[in-house]
Amino acid sequence: MKFPLLIVLASLAAFAYADEAPNSLTGNLSLNSDYRFRGISQTWKQPAVQGGLDYAHSSGLYAGTWMSNVSGNSYNNGAGLEWDLYGGWKFSPMQDLTLDFGALAYVYPGAKLNSAPGVATDQKYDNVDVYAGLGYGAFSAKLSIAATDYFGLDSTTAGYAYFSALPARGGSKGSAYLDLNYTFDLGDGMTLGTHLGRLEVKHYGELSYTDYKLSLAKDFKILTLTAAVVGTDAKRDYYQAANSAGQSAKRIGTTGLVLSVGKTF
Q1: d(CA 10, CA 137)
Q2: Is residue 129 part of a domain?
Q3: Which end of the chain is more exposed for a tag (fewer CB within 10 A), N or C?
Q4: What confidence tens digit (pLDDT) does each residue in 217-245 have?
Q5: Beta pairing partners, 217
Q6: Rg of the chain's alpha carbons, rounded to an integer?
Q7: CA distances from 84 to 50, 142, 149, 199 (A)
Q8: Is the dihedral of CA 170, 172, 174, 180 positive or negative?
Q9: Which CATH number is 198's domain given?
Q10: Residue 17 domain-assigned?
């Protein structure tokens, strides 16, 4: 009986320290020169329009949705949109410390992974992560674990299409991503952001890599302008793609400059 009691006590402590802010609904909209997800371009290094809505309850519970265009390349059979749905619980067990637990679903309506000629598959790109995060001052960290095969990678899809250079070794459920960030307030609405991430793909170590980002943002009240240098050490053989059939493949994990203009409302 000790374990349930500890859960109850921890929950009471969390609510005791929960922010007393009222319920809120916020939105965001941005135009970006590229969409980088964990350092990898999702738009073949072309522009992306992104936007989302977030609802936060005074108890710390929250839910939200976010969308972006993605590359409709020849590998993904129709993916043109990424639609994210997420929810969780964020609370402060003590002063200056914030904990965050939740789940996030990445959905690509109408998109399916290709397979070997003559081998049918209904495998989709859709992916679900569960995560735990913490924030302390200007520092934040989050660990995300794939509750499904990592964006469709399993024995059926390995060796074909986007994963053409991979031997089949089973599913990739349990793949993990560690996200570390530190933000410096430079004053006058300017912030310097630093990020380091590490992806470990279960059973397919060739796809594991480290990504990094250094960003400078300026809040003009009406709009926020951001410039970021983003890159990875991802292996070229596994992180390159053509935007259409017959087109030369482009490396999508190399270091590049990403510009964006956004508005939160």
Answers
A1: 22
A2: yes
A3: N
A4: 999 999 999 999 999 999 988 898 776 65
A5: 191, 226
A6: 20
A7: 11, 17, 17, 19
A8: positive
A9: 2.40.160.40
A10: no
